[in-house]
Amino acid sequence: MQQTKCPRCNADLMEGSWEDIQENNNGGVTVDVLPVMVCQQKCGYMREAVDGPTIIAQQGEDRLLLLYPNEQGRILEVIDSVLWPPMHYMSLLSRGGWEDYAGNHDVQSLLEKARDTRAAHLEQPNLFQFATSELSQDAFLCWLMSWCEQPYRTLDHALHKASLDFMTAIFNLHGLPVPVIDSVKLERQFKSLDILAIVNNKFAILIEDKTYTKDHSNQLLRYREAVKAAYPELIQLPIYFKIADQSHYRSPEGAGYKSFTRSMMLEVLNRGIANRVSNSIFTDYQIHLQHIENSVAAFRTKRIEEWDAFAWQGFYQELQKEINGNWGYVSNKQGGFWGFWWRSASFAPYLLQLEQKRLCVKLKATEEEGRVSHPTAKKALKGILEKSEESCLQLRKPARLGVGKTVTVAERNDYLWTKSDGTIDLERTIGELKRF
C-alpha cells in the first residue's frame, strides 16, 4: 500500500534517496543507500520506499491474489473487504482456480478499506502493559477521582458516575455515606503518602497504593500522623489499595486502613462499562485488572506444568480457605519460589511448607539453639519417616540434609493430584494436605 500524501502537511511525496556513510577501521568507508519518499514541501517527513503489492491473479470478480515484494501472496476478498494472512504466492497459485488478472482495481483504495484477518488474534495494546509502576497507577486513581466533581458531569456523564461510584465505595468502606462532592483537592506523594484527596475540606482520603509490594517499616501509621499534623480538623479515610494479592491484611487493618482489593475495583470498573463509560484510559485499566484476575484464576484451567506466579497465588488463596496458613514469595540463591506454610497439631513442632510442586517438612531452631545441628536433623528425619510410614504420607529424605536456622528434614514431590487432562484435582489435593 503506497502512501502518496505527506501525513504531516498533506503535500505530495516524491522519490528520493537516503545515504549513511560509515568509516571502517581499515580507513575505508561503507555506504548504505535506501530509496525513500520525501515531502515535496520539505517539512522533514521521510519514510523508506517500499513497493506496494500488485494483483497477479483473480478468481471471478470477488477474489484477488496480491503479490508482495518478498514473494508473499495474500488473498483479498473484494466484496467483504477481507485480507487473508500471507503465504508464498506459489503455494496459493498451486491450489488452482486462478485466472490471469484482467481488471483495473485501485489496490491502495481496496487495502485501505480491507479488514486484516490477523487482527482477530491480536490483543489490543494496553496502556497499563507499559505503565506498570505504582506512580502510573497513582496517576490513574487521581485522574478517576478528579471526575467526581459535579461540573464534570456535563462533560462525560458516564465517567463522572463511575468516579462517584469509586468515591462512594471508599466512604462506605468506612461506614460513611458519600456526601455531595463539591470539591476534591488531590496531592500525590504528600509526605511520601501515595495519594491524599481532600474532599469538601472535611474529609481526607489517604491512599497507599501497593501493586506487587507490601507495607513496611510502620509507614502506614506515619502517613496518618503526617496528615493529622497538617490537617488536624479533617476526618481521615485511610485506604490500602492493592491490585495484586497478599496472604493477609493484618498490618494495614491494624493501622486503621481499609483494604481496597482488585476484585472491589473490578466491580467499580465493570459497573462503569455497563453504564457505557467509553474512555480508553478507563477501559484499558479494566482490561488490565481483568487480565490479572484471569491469570490468578488460571490454576483451575491450566495444566500444572503451565502455572505461572499468578496461578500459584490463586491456588494458595484457595488452599488458605481450607488450611490456616500463609503464603508469599520466598527468595533464595536458586531464584526463589512461591510458598505456602502452616503448622499442624499432628506434626508439631515442625513447619509444613509448599514450595510450589514440593512439600517440605521444616525444623526451625529455638532461640537457645541458634541453629539446627546435623544430629538433630537426623533424629527429626528418623521420627518423621516413621510417622510417614504409619500414615502412608510418602515422605522421604531430602537430597541433602543441611544445617542452619531452618532446615528441610523431609519432603514429598507428588502431593498435587491431577485430572486426566493435567489440571489440578483441587478437592483431592486439599484432602491430601489435610492428612498432614
Automatic annotation (TrEMBL):
InterPro entries: PDDEXK_4
Species assigned in the record: Cytobacillus gottheilii
Protein name: PD-(D/E)XK nuclease family protein
Domain of life: Bacteria
